[in-house]
Amino acid sequence: METQKVKDAFNQGSNKYDNYRKQAIPLMDEFYQTAIDLTKKYNNPKILDLGAGTGILTELLHKQHPKSEITLIDMSHKMLEKARKKFENEILFNYIEANYLTHNFPEQYDIIISSLSIHHLTDDEKQELYEKIYNHLLDGGVFINADQVSGATDKTEQLYKEKDESHLQTQNMPEYEKEILRKRRTLDKPATLRDTIKWYKQIGYVNVDVFFKYYRYFVISGQK
After folding, report:
1. pLDDT of 213
2. Which residue of 20, 53, 186, 218 pairs with 79 in a disulfide if CB–CB is 3.0 to 4.6 A?
């Protein structure tokens, strides 16, 4: 991962990030709600949100699990500061400003979840992280990832890129803001869905399945 470039990009875009996210992602409500639905069977779970950013997904998690302890980790100070302000009255929230790939988590969790973050890692880093996550899940715990994949072929990837651009063009936002999103996408390193599933199973996750897929956006989960 180009750590500093990613960190700088998200620090610079923190003020408008929530709006950017909602405009940049097609079917965002269904996309995120699918991830939340996969947590419903857990009663007051201990949750770790990887790359939590400003807390968009965290807010939905909290609504679903209002009595749960939730830990947010992100390496962007400005993004995490916005999350702190958003949840300033929540006493069960913990915040870690760090790179989740290298941070040493002292605990295990019922749910480890991430949204639109892990695709910034190289494939080797993704596999390293997936194994780390597995080791920090409690038995029966689940890892849920709402993220992006690359196309299985060059033709499919081109279709994904065309969809990204056509969706962006429908959004009511200034052209310079669209260009910011385009530049941010140059930092993306998504893996194929086939490789992602293969890595999960090699590490030992069970009940691995994809529960949402729309062009490059997908939600996958696996249990320990």
Report:
1. 98
2. 53
